[in-house]
Amino acid sequence: MTLRHLSPLSRLLVSAGAVLTLGATSAVGLPLASASAPTSASSARVIVYSNAHSPGVEVTRASQARRLHGAPASFKRFIGRTAQRISDASTCEGGYVGVTVFRLRTDGFAAGGVNDCGGYAALWAVVDGRWKQIEGTQEIWACAPLRRHRVPSSIAGHTCYDYRHQVQRRYHQA
Fold first, then answer.
1. Which site from 29, 87, 120, 127 is most exposed, i.e. has the minimal number of CB atoms within 10 Å?
2. What does the alpha-carbon distance between residue 67 and residue 161 come to, in Å, rounded to a whole number?
3. pLDDT digit string (tens) for 157-168?
């Protein structure tokens, strides 16, 4: 898949991380994690799967979740099940169907795209001990769920939209 197959928001999110690459270190210069379960915030690692040449790790069926190198096993299972469910239910012909993971923080946060011949950007987090989607949009992230779940800026970026006051705001969460 090329970047042109992504939704405009997905392309924006990928291009925001375009200078970041997946390699021996994460986007913040820390070693890539190999944890099998979410870790504490102080030992969390950011893994960036997207760069100028790739939208991220694409998962169209459960078995492909193993491509999420360094991700906790619980996240791999969640993304694998999500991608498989979307693929199994899809009636799309000729378009990309699946989940693309852009970046992950090993203590329980991730961002990516969900596609079924169209798509949206998604935020995932560990809530009550389980991975779940906490936000999905074709627009800028809404501030309320970012604040409620304390989504790190390394995953959500530094702006959000305050729907209550109808204004874009700066966002920062360590």
1. 29
2. 32
3. 999 999 999 999
